[in-house]
C-alpha cells in the first residue's frame, strides 16, 4: 500500500468518526432546534456524501478539482443550514454548528490533494461560512472567540497537513529512487563479474598469446588488448544518480585507452548533457580512427581532457605520426573524404564549438576541440 492510499484512507476514517460525533450532537440538541427535522435532513445529506466521498476519493481517476469543489459545496451548505435549523439564541451562545468538526475533512482533502496553500484556502472559505451563519441568524455580533478559534484550527490543519504530506511524498519518491538505484547497481555488478570471468579473461589471453606468437597474431593481440582496456573502462564507469540526463565525459574517453592510446583526464567528473558528451566522444573516436588508418602500427596517441570551469571543455588528440602536408585536408574534402570535415569539425560546430588542427610533416598531428559546457540543471 502506497503512502497516498494510506493518506486517503486516514481522511476517510476521519470523515466517518466526525460524522458520528455530529450525529451525536444533533441527537442531543434535537428538541431545542427551531426546525428539528431540518437537523435530521442535514445529517442525512452528510451521511450520503460521506459514503460517496469515501468511494470517490479512493479512486485516483475521480480525484480532482471538481470533486474537491463539490466537497466544499456540501460542507458550506451544511454549515449555512445551521442558521435555519438552530435558534438564534443557540447560535449566539456559541453552540456547535450542525456539521461541527465534520467540515475539517474538506480541509484535509484539499491539503492532501493540492498542498498546504489549497488547504489554507479551504480553511478560509469554511471560516467565512462560519461567520455567515451568525449573519444569517441575525446575530453577527456573536461571532466571537469560539468562531475565531475554530477558524484558526482549520487554518493550522490545512497548513500543517499539506506541508507534512508534501514532505512524506518527497521522501517516498527518494526512497523509491534509492531502491531502483540499488537494484541497478547490483545488476551492474553481477554483469561486471560475469564479463570479468569470461570476456576479459579471453581478451587478456589473446593479447598475451598474440604477443608470444608474433606476426599477424601480434596484431590480433594488440587489438584484443585495446578492446580489453575499453571494456574495463566501460564496466567501471559510474553514473551520477542525481543527474540522470548528464554523462561524465571521462568515462567515454577512457573507453579509448589502450597500450597505444593514453587518456589523461581531471580527477573530478566532467559532466556534460548526454547528447553533447556523446558527440564529443564520437569526434574523438573519429580522430583516433584517422590515426589508425593513416599512421603506422607503432604510432602513439595522447587524448587530453581539460575542464577550465569557466564554461568550456577542451579535448585534444595528439599523435607522433608522420603528420600531414599543408593543404592535405582541403584536398581530402574536395575528393569527398569527409572524415575530418564532418565527423570532427561538423560535430563540434553543431555543438557551438571550435576545432583547431596543428600538423606538419614529420611532427605528428594535434586536433584540439573546444565545446561550451552548459551550466548544470537546477
The helix/strand class is alpha+beta
Number of helices: 13
**Sequence of strands across the biggest β-sheet:** 2-4-5-7-6
Give the termini separation. Answer: 32 Å
Residue runs with pLDDT of under 50 for 5 or more positions = 238-243
Instruction: Give the beta-strand count.
Output: 7
Percent in helix: 55-70%
Sheet with the most strands?
Answer: 5 strands, mixed
Tally of individual domains: 2
Domain DUF5931: 1-176
InterPro entries: DUF5931, HATPase_C_sf, HATPase_dom, Sensor_HK_TwoCompSys
Organism: Actinomadura vinacea
Protein name: DUF5931 domain-containing protein
Would you kindly provide a written description of the structure presented here, covering whatever features stand out?
The protein contains 13 helices and 7 strands. The protein is α+β, with helices and mostly antiparallel strands and 378 residues long. The chain has 2 domains: 3-176; 245-378, Heat Shock Protein 90, CATH 3.30.565. The longest helix is centred in the middle third of the chain and has 53 residues, at 145-197. It starts with a helix and ends in a 6-residue tail after the last strand.
Summarize the structure.
The protein is α+β, with helices and mostly antiparallel strands and 378 residues long.
